[in-house]
Amino acid sequence: MPDQPQVLKAGSRPPWVGLAAAVWVQISAGNGYNFPLYSSAIKSVLGFTQQQITILGVANDFGESVGILPGIACNKFPIWSVLLVGVVACFLGYGVLWLAITETVQGLPYWVLWIALVIATNSNAWFGTAVLVTNMRNFPFSRGTVSGILKGYVGLAAAVYTVVYNMVLKDSASKLMLFLAIGIPILCLALMYFIRPCTPASGETDSSEDVHFVFTQIASVILGIYLVIVTITSDLVSLSDVVSYLLVAIMVILLLSPLGIPIKMTLFPANTKKKQSSRVDSSDQLADQDGNSTQYEPLLAPSSSETHLGSFNDSDDASDMETLLAVGEGAVVKKKRRPRRGEDFKFREAFIKADFWLLWIVYFLGVGSGVTVLNNLGQIGIAFGVDDTTILLCIFSFCNFAGRLGAGVVSEHFVRSKTLPRTFWMTCTLILMVITFVLYALALNGTLYISTALLGVCYGVQYSIMVPTVSELFGLKHFGVIYNFMLLGNPIGALLFSGILAGYVYDAEAAVQGSSICLGPNCFRLTFLVLAGICGLGTILSIILTVRIRPVYQMLYAGGSFRLPQTSGH
Fold it and tell me: Under a CB-based contact definition with an 8 Å cutoff, are residues 371 and 496 in contact?
């Protein structure tokens, strides 16, 4: 089936309206973080063992991270249809779980619940891929910033749902399931119209764009701090219904704050005619729907980056000759060449590249280690003697958000000013993760919360850095597919490091103690030491990757701003 041509929404406001709507869809795409809130209810109501709950946790991670189909669909179908699939998956998956947890339907087999949870959390892949692909194409000059903002709001989703669960749903797992099955689909249906391809934002030609991004980032930071304060306050103090609903209303207002940008642009319009004339006519020039021999026009006027581009291309694939002599009277036939890093790759072309697998392995080792702690955070807290693990989850959630948002801002600054590859920050966080896991293993007094905060930041950075790195190395045209393949590192890491390693070590120590609940630092010490070694390996591979792709960033960001390479047909 040929790629679906998409109608672009013209004007300067639609990309920002789409970004504001994407914030809410990204919160919806974080529904997988709710598993710790209802897993205990499933265990008690349905009589499951801890091992069965752990396997359901793997289903939770597997569903939200398998997004190959959404990635393909983003190039084949309109974005609203991609969102619609997510709506249906969310309704069906959580609907079945609601029927089970309320015992409306009794005797559902375990495998049915496992598949239902995979379908439910797979809605995250459809929601997240739709908004991420659309906004990366709508803001092609600010990929790191946009990625940080959108991934940051996903990181805040856990805290948002916790506030709703505690203050509105009154800690009712059945009400939470009903909210996920009906509330989220209704919300995404209402926002479906606004998530659409637009004429790309003007980027560096419009200095106000930086101000708009800063406003959005500040608003998200304020929201994150507010959620931490509200979560801790509600845990320590009994709040009346009126106060609870008021606090939730303030949270909703903060979530609506990015909408202030298009409102401001409407009330105080700028003279953009001159700027718009220099824009590209279509975001599909960045992700062209025709995969044959289209020659892209440069987005910006030629600059000194052409010198870098020429030398880069000459040295990148010198043996790949563009021409061969035809049989006949001196005719020359031009043959297709493979894309070079920084250009648009098809999935099968990226799949055979060393940089593709280096990035995947580094991401797998970093995120796989982080998700192991996240999935077992409740048990880790209990093993370390923490009575209420809600604060631990809240700390991890906020620091995860801070890492995602901060990685976008910091990497964008240094990639423009120093042409420093974004993967440099993956290297830094992997080193920090080695130290963090050693702190966990030592189990020193007062280090649990510090270790959890550090790991939350590192976990968020890994997510946020991977997204723009994929788009810069392999282009935007097939970004959705390649990005979602990278995400497979999450469930595979959860299965190997959490489901097998951590589960085995925990059960073995619990058996030694003669109880089903393990207490003490030995419950996870071996796991933490192994994870420290895994992150050490990731550090070495990340350094190799960073050195390999440095010339790509020197080409893409020569002159201090993003330059789209002129691609040839392939």
Answer: no
